[in-house]
Amino acid sequence: MVTRHLTSERLVLTIAAVVVVGVLAVATWSLVFASTGTADQPRIDADVQQRYEAIDGVNATQTTTITRDGTVASRTTYDAVLQPGTQKKRLAVVNSTARRYDLRVSNGSALWLYDQRRENATRISLSGTGADRGERLQRLLTKLNMSAAAETPDSQSVEPLPVVPHGEGQPTESTGSMAVSYRGTESVDGREAYVIRVAPENDTAAYEQTIWVDIDRFFPVKKRTAWTTDGEHTVVTTTYTNVSYDTGVSEDVFTPDFPDDTTVTVPETPDTRTYESVGALEAEAEMQVPEPDIPPGYELTYATQTRGQIRGVGLRYANRTSLLTVAKYNYTYSPSDGDGQVTIDGRQAQLTRGPTSSLSWSCESYRYTIRGEGVSADRLITVGQSIGCPAAE
Fold it and tell me: Domain 270-387, what architecture?
């Protein structure tokens, strides 16, 4: 039986969405860079990744602000300790206008999310090395070295930097042809930084990211990500001030030190299998597979089944310009207000907008989630209504 702690419920739900939907929807930004080099654009010959990952610890004040249509929705300030080139970090909330975990601690292999008020912590196992940010910066700045006379743009895969943790307004990464441009230098809290902009070549996705990179150590001291969906403009800005490099951070800093009476929840890691057709999934699925009415022009790219404490199935469809995923899993919770009042088959649904919009609702003991990149909210609702709540559940 699923443990009914509110904090762990939301986290397990996030994990389920990442595993069931994320396996479907998480795609790489395949960026086809168009050099916009100018006469005053510097040629960066340093080994960016090595310089970044050689930083022996960073202490800073991290401030993340989310605005929607020009109004501040939330602002959170952390005491931050980071180890570049790894997933090691410690973020302690100083103040926040929205509900947040009081402390986030990662030792590189596990992440703990601590809620002091509920005396609860959730432990999540991490995968990967966490060194990909240095690689991303290396590729990004290498592209800035291109000049019209010397080099030709290629299609090397490059990803923008992460925005903020899931649950704090972060857009899911998408797929698209992107362009990078150099915007000069600016000072961020007394540190000179290269200003780099990444955006779709045709601007149809209404998405852009600007990164301020320390010209000496190549640490991103500021990043701003903005997108517009269904007429709502969202901006997420993270800024590091009071930055100190090479602080020689002790490993103890990345070890959780919660009170002895803290309840620690460890969500089970599900097992996910991939299928090439809906029929192959249905032949092995432990639950009824959704039958959505998918708009013409979309093709199934693959289907998945997840087994474990969280069980689910997922379908991923794509056309030339957009991505649509459908997921169903055996986990439900009361929906929040979302971005609008929507009902699916008489059930209240949660609609959220962003570069990736989503629609979720519960039917008896199952939860349905539809996500779309480059897909309007109205289309998500139409697909959701075609699924409804099947009588055979």
Answer: 2-Layer Sandwich (3.30)
